[in-house]
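In response to reviewer comment 3 from the previous cycle, which asked for concrete evidence that the modeling workflow produces usable outputs, we include below a single protein chain processed end to end. The sequence was submitted unchanged, and the resulting structure tokens are shown without manual editing.
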Amino acid sequence: MKIASIDIGTNAIKSKIFSTTPASMKFVQGMRSPIRLGSEVFEQGQLSKIKLNQVIETIQGYEEIFKSNDITHYEIIATSAFRDTTNSEEARRYIETAIHHPLRIISGLEEAKLIGFHPQASAGKTKLFVDLGGGSTEFYFRQREEIEIRSFQLGAVRNMLKKDEIEEWKRLEAWLLSIKPVRKLTGIGGNIKSFLESQNATSLKTKDFNERADQLGRLTTKKKISTYQFSPDRADVIDDALKIFKFIAEMLEVEVITSTKWGVSDSIAVKLFHQIYSSDIKIL
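The workflow returned the following structure tokens.
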């Protein structure tokens, strides 16, 4: 059986398809559409019908691919932009009416908790995942058996548009200082993944990370695209994303920064996988 997930993010809409058996999941295909909802939400306060129609058209395109793959089990979720827009409920109903499928807007803390589905989330004594999106940054921190999840209103698109608040930075700083030191940080999201790939690295020592991020920051958006083949919607926000990572690493005294291909769409698919196959279990 194939299953799928759709993640309506702040900077893009992403979908992943997996082939499953009762005992396994295998990644089949991933899709990404650069629809930036955050620009309208953070600058105008709400999502327009024009933007919502773009979302609907994108989802329907994904659903056609699902249909060609005989996929009937899939979940659609939305994150920061939909949480923050003033017409959130109206927008959700408008999309659901058009696509005839539920759309679930998840909280920042649920988004952080979903990171726990990562295959390495329970490995080792200490683990820190930082999911830096367009509108918010989520943390999944495990130290031995203790798990902490946090969500902050700081993100690549939000910060690029200068809609971040100093109080949120202070709230983040206070929490980071309460859990330091953390020697290794695993970043989630397209910005950290694209940056490390552009440096031909799977991980970097923090000192090297900072130096190379500063070098990248001195390039124009056009130069970033031509030199590293970044997409336009990656090239214009990546500096703001890396600034957040640098701040986190400094506060936590991080020594090594790495990334993972894992994202919200993976976690949603894994959660759906468990829901589907747990129904096969009979309680006597």
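The CA atoms of residues 128 and 141 lie 5 Å apart. We consider this sufficient to address the reviewer's concern, and the full set will be provided in the supplementary archive.
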